[in-house]
Amino acid sequence: MCKDVVENIMDYIDKELDMETLRELEKHTGECPECKAFVDTYRRMLDVTGKLKERPSVTPEIRNRLKTLLKSKIDPC
Ligand SMILES: [Zn+2]
């Protein structure tokens, strides 16, 4: 996974991205299958959580799990 987008994706997980950064991230995931795969995984987890709780929300547990996963996937170029 690309080191330079990991922070953006973490902000995305926390939903604290401004529109400009979000567009950059979505542009990157359109070009980078590896990062897109992670964001897709994240969205699937959100869907499952949303069904269970009737409302999409990211629990601290899911957030921490995703961040640990992200860190483990950082590939120093
Ligand atoms: Zn990437």
Tell me the major beta sheet: none
Which shape, going by the Cα principal axes?
Answer: globular
Order of helices and strands: HHHH
Bin the strand percentage. under 5%
Helix content: over 70%
Distance between the termini: 9 Å
Average pLDDT level: 76
Our count of domains comes out at 1
Radius of gyration equals 12 Å
Residue runs with pLDDT of under 50 for 5 or more positions: none
Number of helices: 4
Please count the beta strands (DSSP E, at least 2 residues each): 0
Determine the structural class based on helices, strands and strand pairing. Answer: mainly alpha
Small molecules bound in the structure, each named once: zinc ion
Key features?
77 residues, mainly alpha, 0% strand, globular, binds zinc ion
Explain this structure to me?
By secondary structure, the chain is an all-alpha fold. It has one domain (3-73). Helix content is 77%, strand content 0%. The longest helix has 21 residues, at 33-53. The protein is globular, with a radius of gyration of 12 Å. The mean pLDDT is 76. Zinc ion binds at residues 1-2, 5, 28, 32, 34-35.
In short:
By secondary structure, the protein is an all-alpha fold. The chain is built from 4 helices and no strands. The radius of gyration is 12 Å and the shape is globular.
How would the blueprint of this fold be written?
Elements: H1 3-13, H2 19-31, H3 33-53, H4 60-73
Bound molecules: zinc ion.
